Amino acid sequence: MTIDTAQWTRRLAELAERHDVPGATLGILHEGEIGEAAYGVLNLRTGVETTIDSLFQIGSITKVWTATLVMQLVDEGKIQLDAPLIEVLPELRLSDPGVTAKVTMRHLLTHTSGIDGDVFTDTGRGDDCLEKYTAVLADAAQNHPLEATWSYCNSGFSLAGRVVEKLTGGTWDAAVRDRIVTPLGLTRTVTLPEEALLHRAAAGHVTHDGKQSVAPVWGIPRSAGPAGSIISTVADLLTFAKMHLDGGGEVLSPASAAAMAEFQVELPDKHLLGDSWGLGWERAGWDGHRLIGHDGNTIGQAAFLRLLPEQGFAVALLTNGGNGAKLYEELYREIFAALAQVPVPHPLGPPAIPVDVDPAPYLGVYERASIRQEISVGENGPVMRVSVTGAMAELLQEEPVDYPMVAVAPDLFVCQDPETGNWIPATFYQLPTGEKYVHFGARATPRCAS
What sequence ranges are listed for the domain Beta-lactamase-related (predicted)? Predict the structure, then answer.
């Protein structure tokens, strides 16, 4: 079946307009063919048109590329997934000496290290930025015990990037270029803003008080590169995806490509991202079909990638503002139904019939580095107030946000984002050792002692 690019270009435009997305590109890999579509503008200030060769920030989809580099090193016998990192990074010091001694690359790739996941310290633009960042982690909080639960961890991937540097003798950026970009023949994939300037690149957009404007900052710190700084096109991104679907090609061994997609750890919250995690890949089950993928969010840009290995099928969507999540949800539902005959599940929302759950056991304060979540009962029911704290608060200057909560089941609520109207699940649970946590926004946050 040939991809009808005219149809998908039209649907991309209609849905992007509905969800206030200034510009977007769409790529579909189907039966070995890549179809592409573009919509809108790259920058509301300049009005530059979006084209299929436009570069967008793919954000955390970068983590799969970093995991791919690690698995290359596994193939080469330079690292073992379950060996302590200090064997290759003896200078590593974390806040918990026990974690320093035991943390492995598998913990980093599966988000189970417990290291505070949102350390975005800018350690400069030099080639030593990841070396300096690794030293900063000595002061990072331990959010949960090693392996005790799953919590999204950007910091772990910056650390993984530093390991890549130690084992390759160059920068992470050079490793991406030399070990993935060049072998795959990618012509529009870069990692640094000065490289993106040589191409047609999107600017992010943010919304305040209903008004959309160009984001005040274009990129993220270079120290966060292995967690989220790749800039690419949908065609290049799908070429990378096809390499994984084809068993690794010239980049990875078939065993390593397969291992990345295999089950590694279950998620406490199975509604927001997926039901489990592989080595870098998110794993989701849609109507009995197994998918892998990843999303990415930077400052005003959002990216979405889904692969259906059983059919060699993949879809990529890159956006630069507005409600990209709603665009993804509606557009992918149509594409997967039409071309793969796979229904996309609807996101979790309030139940049609209200569920009576006593909120009392969940009330209180949950806190991790930079985030405080206070759950109380307001006039219309339970509310989660999320506040940014510490150095991050000084940087962002954001006011606390109140999320109205609606019960779905015991230990499970959905919280409405007042800005977008999207519903975000909140799962309450205990670690095997008894500590109480809430899983919200893909992060595990411990309850403070009363």
Answer: 10-338
Q: Is the CB of residue 101 less than 8 Å from the CB of residue 94?
A: no
Domains along the sequence of the chain with CATH = 1-347 (3.40.710.10), 360-446 (2.40.128)
Read off the pLDDT of residues 133-181 as tens digits, 9 standing for 90 and up. Answer: 999 999 999 999 999 999 999 999 999 999 999 999 999 999 999 999 9
| pLDDT block averages, 10 residues each, the chain of length 450 | 91 98 98 96 98 98 98 98 98 97 98 95 97 97 96 98 98 98 98 98 92 94 97 98 97 98 97 96 97 97 98 98 96 97 95 94 94 93 91 69 95 92 95 95 91
Could you tell me which residues are beta bridge partners of residue 447?
Answer: 366
The angle subtended at Cα 26 by Cα 24 and Cα 30, nearest 5°, is 180
Q: Which positions ≥6 away from 326 have C-beta within 8 Å?
A: 19, 420, 422
| Candidate list 60, 155, 158, 229, residue with the active-site label | 60
